[in-house]
Design goal:
With 325 residues, the chain is an alpha/beta fold. The protein contains eleven helices and 13 strands. The protein has a seven-stranded parallel β-sheet, with helices on both faces. Helix 3 packs across helix 5 and helix 7 crosses helix 11.
């Protein structure tokens, strides 16, 4: 049985990936994360808790593993990108140095790097194909640049040493598991907006005009896409947009969340806050490559996914996330 190391396995996407790996019983799973994993992960997986930027810790984490899914990174919402630019670069690149090194030492059968749609933050092609990465201007944000650097690591280590890799770019992940943050913009938009609606905020505050577009993709779909790409022979040395296909404006997404929280549709109204220096105006990927090459496409309908997210957040202590009632 293949043993897979999932770095960042206690996070929202990481936990979904672990759940997907365990579902079919084809994989043993070890996670590495400095956060406390959910009880079900601790019960079913090996757990490593050291700092993966330390090479010896990365070696301990990867011992006995023949595949690595690298998710560990500093992530978050648009505010995080502006608040922690140096930290993002330092931590994420420190992780690349060790994780790619141990992948090479272990001669893993597949190194899966989970990148980000932010590598396409300056895209000019819509829907954005994977091949557009060759022509797309370099990201302005430190976060986008750090994720692009990881893609270059994949290609460089393959070109020099022949290490098999797969690059997966999730687009606008959302779903149960991610809490909002007391400071708007630090977490992703969906939990932030749900928190605002559940706290009774009227009008609902959003950053910018609301005409910015996103393609929301449920974490269960992202996890399935990552595992499918890892396991499929045709995924070797390829890159994939892991995304739903529906482009929506932030204003439209806010309205879906408003309604999912049980509010009166007639009372929906927005207040527009100043946005950040880097606020991608359009994000709409092509999803044809994953469908044609590895037979994967998203399954979770947006209304259903948002409803599940609202239900999950209703059960949490939102006062700890800065909600006011």
């Amino acid at each position: 049985m293949s043993k897979v190391l999932v770095t960042g396995g206690a996070g929202t996407i990481g936990a979904a990936v672990v759940r997907r790996l365990l579902r079919d019983g084809d994989f043993e799973v070890r996670i590495s994360d400095q956060r406390q994993p959910a009880a079900w992960i601790a019960e079913q997986c090996d757990v490593h808790t050291g700092d993966l930027r330390v090479l010896d810790e990365a070696r301990k984490a990867s011992e006995g593993c023949d595949r690595i899914i690298h998710l560990a990174a500093i992530v978050g919402g648009i505010g995080n990108f502006h608040k922690l630019p140096h930290t993002l670069l330092e931590v994420n690149n420190g992780l690349y140095n060790t994780i790619f090194r141990v992948a090479l030492e272990r001669e893993v059968s597949r190194m899966v790097y989970v990148s980000s749609s932010m590598v396409f933050e300056r895209a000019t092609e819509f829907p954005t194909t994977e091949s557009h990465i060759l022509d797309c201007p370099t990201p302005v944000s430190a976060y986008g640049f750090s994720k692009l650097a990881g893609e270059i690591y994949c290609e460089a280590i393959h070109d020099e040493h022949g290490l098999p890799y797969t690059i997966c770019r999730p687009f606008n992940a959302y779903g149960p598991g991610e809490m909002p943050d007391p400071e708007p913009g630090i977490a992703h938009a969906v939990p932030d907006l749900i928190k605002k609606v559940l706290s009774g905020q009227k009008p609902l505050q959003i950053f910018g005009s609301g005409e910015q577009t996103r393609t929301l993709t449920h974490v269960d779909d992202i996890a399935d896409g990552v595992v499918t790409a890892m396991a499929h022979p045709a995924g070797e040395n390829e890159d994939f947009n892991i995304s739903a296909g529906e482009e929506m404006t932030i204003a439209e997404i806010a309205e879906v969340i408003w309604n999912a929280c049980g509010n009166d549709p007639e009372e929906f109204a927005l207040e527009h806050l100043p946005t950040f220096k880097v606020d991608v105006q359009r994000r709409w990927p092509s999803v044809e490559k994953a469908k044609n090459l590895i037979g994967w496409e998203s399954q979770v309908a947006l209304d259903d996914g948002i409803a599940r997210s609202v239900e999950w957040l209703r059960e949490q202590d939102l006062s700890a996330a800065g909600a006011s009632h």
